Every structure is written in C-alpha cells, then in structure tokens.
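Input structure tokens:
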C-alpha cells in the first residue's frame, strides 16, 4: 500500500493543495477535503459515487473554527458541544456563507463535529476545517480500518492516515435542535438517554427506521439512500429467547447456499457449525458489535456468502444506532422466530 502513514505534515499539505486525504476518527474513517474548496469537495462525491443531494459533515478542531463554518449557535447546541465534543456527535447548524453549497447539498444548514482522535485533530488544526463523509464507496459499509478501504478509494486519494482500527466503529449521532427540542436524525454512540441529560425534549426522526422513497423530502438525506449493504441477502432475526433461536437454526441452513450467522458471543459460541455455514461472532456487548459490524459485513462479500442472518437488538442505548444500520443492511427483511 502506497501513501499510507501517520505524517500529518504531508496530509495537511495535500488538503491545502485541494487533494483528498483519508483520516481516522473515533467513529469511522473519513475521506476529507478542505471544507472551503468546492472543487476538492466535488471530488469526494466522485470518489464515493455519492448522490449529490447527500450533505457532508464539516470537521473542526477548536471552537474558533466554528465561526467560519456556522452562522450561530443557540444554548442547547452549545451545551451539546460542551458535553460531548470532541466526540461522536454532529450538530446541524445554520450554515456560514463561506461554506460552499456543494458541501451541504444546497441546504442552508451544515452538520459540524469535532472528532475525538488526535491524528484527526492535528490534521484539522494544520489544514483548517475538513468536509468528510465516511470513507467508503456509497452503499458499502463504512471503513473502520485502512485495509478494508484502500483498494476502493486509492485511485482518488493522495494520502491515507493510518490510525489502526476505529474505536467506536459506527458513525456519529446526527442531531438538529428545533425550538426547544433535540431531533436525532441519525442515532449513534451518543444515545438518546445521553442527550436527555441536556434537554428533556429529545425525539428520534421517524425516517431513522422507515423506508424512505428516493424522491421524498427528508430532514436527513442520508437516511433515504441504499446504505451499508453487502452483496449477500441479509435478514434480521428477531427471537424471543436464545433456546428458541438455537432450535430453529437448522431450518435456516440451506443445502445449496452458503449461509452466515452474525450473533453475539452468547449465541455464536453455541452454534454447531456445518459445512456450508459460517458464523461471525459480534463480541460480548453492544460496544463490541459497533466495533465489529462494518468489518464483518465486508467480510461477507469476501467469503461469497449467499445469505446472512443477523440478530436484532433492543432499540435502546447504543442498540438504537446499531439497529438503524442493521435495518438498512437487511433492506427491511425481518424474520420473527417464535416457539412453535
Ligand atoms: O462519524 C461520522 O459522522 C463520520 C466521520 C467521518 O465523521 N462521518 C459520516 O459522514 O458518517 P456521512 O457523510 O457518511 O454521513 C453524514 C450524515 C448523512 O446521513 C447526512 O445526510 C447527514 O449526516 N447530514 C449531513 N449534513 C446534514 C445537514 N445539513 N442536514 C441534515 N443531515 C445532514
Ligand atoms: Mg456514510
């Protein structure tokens, strides 16, 4: 792999010259360009084959930078920043005119976050605000390490900053403050429960779990596009209890198909593996699931899986963000396993 390292001087020089740099954040990797260079930002859309109506997040490294990016900040927004930045939450704010329209897909708002990763913060400190979506071709799982994304992005990227595996593994929570209310546009590591410590009135945008038509006008355009999907057919498995699930696994294994199961360790470690069956162990808790899920979804394609059954999770805490990703991975296919 060429042009991979931890040289922030090289990376910031590339950004200043209008090139693209892949960099680590605590959530997932980003593919970034100077937020004020519209031509460079257009190249991000080309590199990802990203729909032009899906706006990018602008990453900053200090509060001074915020002034060049956003017009104003209200009390609740400031409290969210004070509590969670640097960290995995993006806040949709009124955009400063200095930010080119291509960054925000012509919206008059801009989503901003300060990532909690020293390589990212050093880069932004040197290069200025960076517009960056997740580092992956659109529709593919977000990149959580350089190996997974190098070949799909390297034709377009001048330098990759290698920060190892992403700590969190799923993308930031995206919120918008409307009146005295916080609306979660995309659930993530900062949970609804966390946000309620700042503002009593927190709600989740209905489109986080509904299928949205391509032509529909929505609060968060990212929710309507095909997302995170491997080539294999994926199905979400709901089940009442472990015993019932284990009894029914055999019925899901098909002779002429390569079938995968993706479960928490408590179930995965109990599955009896057959010849045309692969088991992915998501780990012991929701943090592990977040950290492993995108890498494992990519692995499904590497292993030419035909069908993958993924366990569902309770939609609370970090489970809400995980389920928002999984429902899209599975294109709303759900099987409910019940005791017969
Ligand atoms: O953790 C993350 O957020 C990562 C890292 C790299 O920071 N970035 C990321 O970016 O996931 P991306 O582009 O894959 O997702 C950004 C999401 C999309 O769903 C987009 O529609 C939404 O944020 N978004 C961005 N700007 C917005 C705006 N002005 N209004 C509403 N939604 C916005
Ligand atoms: Mg993305």
């Amino acid at each position: 792999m060429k042009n991979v390292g931890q040289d922030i001087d090289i990376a910031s020089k590339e950004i200043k010259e209008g090139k693209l740099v892949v960099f680590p954040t605590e959530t997932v990797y980003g593919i970034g360009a100077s937020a004020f260079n519209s031509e460079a930002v257009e190249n991000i859309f080309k590199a990802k084959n990203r729909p032009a109506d899906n706006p990018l997040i602008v990453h900053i490294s200090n509060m001074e930078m915020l002034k060049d990016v956003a017009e104003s900040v209200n009390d609740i927004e400031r409290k969210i920043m004070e509590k969670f930045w640097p960290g995995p939450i993006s806040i949709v704010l009124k955009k400063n005119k200095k930010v080119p329209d291509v960054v925000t897909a012509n919206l008059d708002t801009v989503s901003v976050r300060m990532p909690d990763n020293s390589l990212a913060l050093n880069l932004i400190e040197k290069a200025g605000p960076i517009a960056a979506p997740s580092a992956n071709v659109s529709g593919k799982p977000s990149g959580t390490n350089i190996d997974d994304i190098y070949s799909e992005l390297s034709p377009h990227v001048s330098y990759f900053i290698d920060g190892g595996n992403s700590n969190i593994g799923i993308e930031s929570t995206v919120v918008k403050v409307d009146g005295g209310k916080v609306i979660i546009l995309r659930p993530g590591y900062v949970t609804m429960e966390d946000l309620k410590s700042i503002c009593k009135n927190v709600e989740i945008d209905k489109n986080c779990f509904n299928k949205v038509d391509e032509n529909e006008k929505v609060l968060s355009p990212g929710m309507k596009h095909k997302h995170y999907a491997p080539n294999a057919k994926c199905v979400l498995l709901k089940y009442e209890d472990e015993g019932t699930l284990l009894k029914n696994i055999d019925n899901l294994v098909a002779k002429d198909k390569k079938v995968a199961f993706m479960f928490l360790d408590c179930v995965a470690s109990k599955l009896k593996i057959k010849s045309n069956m692969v088991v992915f162990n998501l780990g012991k808790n929701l943090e592990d699931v977040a950290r492993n899920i995108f890498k494992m979804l990519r692995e499904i394609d590497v292993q030419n899986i035909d069908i993958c059954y993924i366990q569902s999770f309770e939609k609370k805490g970090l489970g809400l963000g995980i389920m928002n990703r999984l429902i899209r991975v599975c294109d709303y296919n759900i099987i409910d396993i019940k005791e017969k």
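Residues 25, 27-28, 30, 54-57, 90, 92, 104, 107, 109-111, 113, 115, 132-134, 171-172, 174, 185-186, 219-222 surround threonylcarbamoyladenylate (ligand 1) (CB under 6 Å). The first helix runs from residue 8 to 16.
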